[in-house]
Fold:
Amino acid sequence: MNILRGFLKNKRINPKGTTVFFLLCLYTLLPFSPVMAENKYGGELVLTTTSDPKSFNPVLAKETSTTTILAPMFEGLTMTDPFDLRVKPNLAERWESDAQGLIWTVYLRKNLFWSDGVPLTADDVIFTFNDLIFNDAVPNSSRDIFTIAGKPLRVEKVDDLTVKFILPVRFAPFLRSLGVEILPQHALQASVKAGKFAFTWGIDTPVKELVGTGPYRLKEYRPGQRLIYEPNPYYWKRSPEGERLPYISKLVYLIVPSLDVELLKFMEGSIDAYSLRGMDYPLLKPREQKGDFKIYNMGPDMGASFVVFNQNPGVNAKTGKPFVVSYKLAWFRDVRFRQAVAHAVDKKRIIEIVKNGLGYEQYSPESPSVGFFYCPDVKKYDYDLNKARALLEEAGFSRDSSGVLKDKDGHAVEFNFYTNADNTERVDIASIIRNDLESLGMKVNLQLVEFNTLVGKLTSTYDWELIVLGLTGSIDPHFGQNVWLSSGQLHMWNPQQKTPATEWEKKIDEIFAQGVQEMDETKRKAYYDEYQKIIAEEVPLAYTALGARLTAVRNRFGNLKPAPYGGVFHNLEEIYIQQR
Structure:
C-alpha cells in the first residue's frame, strides 16, 4: 500500500481498473524499485560553491570548482572508509591478487547501470583506463598516479563483469587508486575516436548527456546561479534496511561570489551548511546554542596552504616571450630567495587574525590529518625578518638609499602576487604576506582574480610570478605525485619537465618510484618522510597555516556522520531530512 500511494502521488494516475494494477506490478518488478520509507524520502539539500565549474569532465578536472560539483555524479571501483581509512568495495564487489601482487583481478557488482539506464560492464573500466587515462592525447592527472616506475599498468577484460590489472612492478596503494572515476564508454567513445575528448562534456553540454553512476545526476545548470541535481533512478546502493538511495530528492549547489556571501546566506537560512573560516567562529558559535545548527570540528584541514614561485623557464609559443623574465626567474630559482620569503610568512599572525586562533602552523607538505605518513621533523621557518634579510644579502640582494631591494644587477625586486578574489581568507593571508615582503624592500602588486582564471594561469598560460593557493590532500602521499614528480601536470613551479631540472627534484622522483613499490609500510614511511624533508629544505612552496576543519550544518538531517577524512556529507546518499 505504501508503494501504491507513492506511485499514484508521483505519477498522478487515476486508480481505475486493470491498467493501474498492471502498471503497479511492472513498477514493483523493476530492479531498482524502492522499499519506501515515507518519512525519509523527499526534501532538498542546498549547498554552495564560489565558482562555476570549468568542465563537467572528471578526467580533465584539476580544480575543486569542478571536482566538487561532479562528486555526486561519479564513482570509482573502490572507496576509502572515512573513519578507519581502509579501502572498501564500491563499484567493484571484490578483488584478488597473485602472490607477487602484480596481477589483480577485480569483479564488478551485478546489475550496475549508468544514470541513463545502460548497463555498466568491464568495457567501461577498460575504456576509462586504456582510452582515457593512458591516452597521451587526453591531458589528465590520473596518468601520473597510475604510471609506476615510468610504465603504465595494463588493463584487460576477462568477461563482462571481470577486469584484470597487470602491474609492471608492485604498487602499494593500488586498491586505493581504484577510487578514480569510471566513465561510460557508450557516451564518450565517439569523441575519443574523433580526437575531441578534451572538448567533450564542457559546461555548454546539455546536462541530459552527462552520464554517471553516483547517487545524483545533474538536472539543470544555470551559469553564475546554481546547479540542480535529481536522484539517479538507477543508483545501485541500498540502505541496510533495503531502502533505495538516495533519500533527498533535490540537491542544489548555489554559485556565490564569495565566502562572505555564503556566510550571509547561511545566517539567513537559505543554505544548509557552511564551512567556517576562523573569523566566522565568534559570530556563529553563540548562535549555535539556539538549536538551528551545529558546528562540527574535524581537526586540521587535510590539504595545504602555501605561496608558490614560478620557476618555469619555458617560452610562450604564441608571443615568443618567456613565461618569467630571466632576472626574476633567477630570483625564484635561488633557494635562498625562497627561504627568505618563507621566513617572512607570519604563521602565528595568520592564525590569530585570519583564522581567529583556530589554525595550525604548516611546515610539511603533508597535513597532520593524514596520520601515519605525516612527518613533523622537517625544517621549520620561523617568522624572522632578520633571517630573511640575511638570506637575501647572501644571495646578492641589497637595499638602496630609498629602501628598495635590488638584485646584484640593479633590478628592483618587484612582482605580481596572485590569489583568488572569492576566497576572503586567502586574500587576507596574501595581504599579511605582502606587507612583510614590502618591509624587506620588495614591491608586491597584489592581484585578485576569479578562481578559474587563477587555475588557468597556473596550469595553462603560466602567466604568473607568485601565487597564494591551496591543495586538497590525501592520506597516501602517492596520490600527490602529480604535484611532486618533475613530470607532473601539477608540478606547479615548473610542470611537465622532460628530465628533472634539479638534483633535488630528481631525488624526489626516485623516492616516489621506490615508495610506491615498497609493501612494508614502515619502510614506505621512511621514503615519504625524506620527500617531506626535501620539500621543506628547498621551499618550492612556502607554507602558511592550516585551518581547523569547521562546518556548520542545519539540525534537520538524519544519518549525518561527520568524519575527519570524508567531511560532513561523505555519505550523501544516506542522509535524509528529519523535518520538512
